[in-house]
Amino acid sequence: MAAMSTRWGMFSDEVAVTYPPAAQDHWQASAFVPRSFVRAKDAHHGEVMVTVLIKDGTRYAVLPSDQRDIVRVESSDLSSR
């Protein structure tokens, strides 16, 4: 059996993020990420610092979540810091 840690809720130093926005026709992914990786634009929108991988021209973002969730992202949703 592998050792695992499980979180059953959001902690005060975490933010729930969802990508892509609901208006798009893609499956949405949600994860809890450390608040220090998020730059809020307003109460419900912001930017998350991610690692970007490119494979065969498709871009993927590795979220800073405990599970290192990976989501496909559009180039237009990425900005450099």
Outline the structure in words.
The protein has one domain (14-77). Helix content is 0%, strand content 40%. The chain has no helices and 7 strands. The strands form 3 sheets. Strands 5-6-7 form a 3-stranded antiparallel sheet, with no helix packed on it. It has a two-stranded antiparallel sheet with strand order 1-2. Strand 6 and strand 7 (70-73) form a beta hairpin. The N and C termini lie far apart (41 Å).
Low-confidence stretches: 1-8
What integer value in Å does the Rg equal? Answer: 14 Å
Large-scale geometry: globular
- Total helices: the number is 0
- Domain module count: 1
How much beta, percentage-wise? 35-45%
What topology, given as strand order, has the largest sheet?
5-6-7
The sequence of SSEs as H and E is EEEEEEE
Chain-averaged pLDDT: 81
Number of strands: 7
Structural class: mainly beta
Q: How helix-rich are the residues, as a percent range?
A: under 10%
Distance N terminus to C terminus? 41 Å
Largest beta-sheet characterization: 3 strands, antiparallel
Please render the helix and strand layout as text.
Blueprint: E1 14-19, E2 29-34, E3 38-40, E4 46-48, E5 51-55, E6 58-62, E7 70-73
Antiparallel strand pairs: 1-2, 3-4, 5-6, 6-7
